[in-house]
Design goal:
By secondary structure, the protein is of the alpha+beta class. The strands form four sheets. Strands 4-8-9-7-6-5 form a six-stranded mixed beta sheet, with helices on both faces. The structure holds adenosine-5'-triphosphate.
Amino acid sequence: MSIYDGSFVNNQLSKRTSIFGLRLWVVIGIVVGVVIVLILFLLSLCITNCRRRSSGGAASKRRRRTAAAVPAVEVTPVVNKEVMEIVHDTAPVVPQGVPEIQIDMGKVEHRVVFSDRATGASSGESRGTSAADTGSAGGSGALPEVSHLGWGRWYTLRELEIATNGLTDENVIGEGGYGIVYYGVLTDNTRIAVKNLLNNRGQAEREFKVEVEAIGRVRHKNLVRLLGYCVEGAYRMLVYEYVDNGNLEQWLHGDVGDVSPLTWDIRMKILLGTAKGLGYLHEGLEPKVVHRDIKASNILVDRQWNAKLSDFGLAKLLNSENSYITTRVMGTFGYVAPEYACTGMLNEKSDIYSFGILIMEIITGRSPVEYSRPPGEINLVDWLKTMVGNRKSEEVVDPKLKERPVSKALKRVLLVALRCVDPDAQKRPKMGHVIHMLESEDLLMGNEQRTGRESSGSHHDNKNIHAGGDLVNKPPEAAASDTNEISSSASKQNLPASWR
Ligand SMILES: Nc1ncnc2c1ncn2[C@@H]1O[C@H](COP(=O)(O)OP(=O)(O)OP(=O)(O)O)[C@@H](O)[C@H]1O
């Protein structure tokens, strides 16, 4: 009988085994089944493990990338006037449809190009400044649109290049965190300042125009006027009125000799003008505008020492609050309110704090932070508080002031400053109140030289602050109550009794 015989195999398989008396084929079936189940189990284990490993790897890669994208907060001790950006967030996520931004920051050639697919500008194009480059930069040499905005002009790139001698370095009058500023003269002889924006923070064209329109409608004699803008291809430029006498920082800290041209009265005029411009942003507009970068270099002056606040609305215009780009605290080191720096919580009280620092700077001629000074004097606020607490307020005045202010006037202005930098933001006065206090100081000053100040101008300016509102034209009784308030504030802050 052959082993291939079917009945033989059948007989063998049907034989009972010693395992529970089970037949051989049953045992074989069970073994095969168990092996299959084992193989399946091992296979599923492998697959799960592999998945875990690959997702774990991706997560750690993501973590590594995120960590790399959060730059460390840099505080450079040598320079204290740089714009400080505290980046709290992760890498920018550029939403679909928003133009990519390419920044080409050479040391000398500080050039920026917006890669704007929507407008057809060629990506990576370097900023040509000659008129010949205009066509390419303008996106196929398209004709400029006519501005549909009621307030200003839409300048062509060509117009601005002609006005600024082709945006040459000779025409550069300044460079800030938002871009390079060029001096220019239009064909109708209007002098302009052209700000070539460094970075539109991914803002789409239409949105940019809407924002510019909003800012362009703002008019006040203490705010630098925005005349128009240029949106062409990769370019975003803002065209401002030219303010012809430099900025406050230059006058306070520049090389002006032993005697400052800024007399006490001129300083008070600049302070009051700035306060009115800021008051208008805070209390004369709906929705209100928080400037976010009040500092000496943002206060331009004309030849009559009228203060003109610049850069207002830029933060909003450039969309820097937009959380999908990044969450930043913008401002300048030394001027930023503590609660804003710590939490990013922003309202007009942060501007009030910066304004308080500005008052101190104007009185003392010192920068908000000066690392070259002895330890107790590095921070202007701390030093000034100590000086006032030690009854040395007369010693804080800028040594470059030839004629010193009368003591009462000095103390009043110092008190306004101290109230503005109150660590409790809620306790800081509103801008309208600050203006009122500065104006009453003005009256009590008893200083006859009212440089360049029109005696009637004051009332006119007040009305400008708040259309229809009576922010500062308070009756004498109200002024008296404010004086009491200053005194009580002095006692609360442990200031010398002679101040009250
Ligand atoms: N409308 C203007 N008229 C005359 N000069 C101007 C005008 N706007 C700006 N400038 C000059 O250009 C400089 C640079 O201005 P910008 O506002 O860009 O920078 P900043 O205020 O110095 O710094 P940041 O913008 O980073 O805070 C200013 O200091 C100012 O002297």
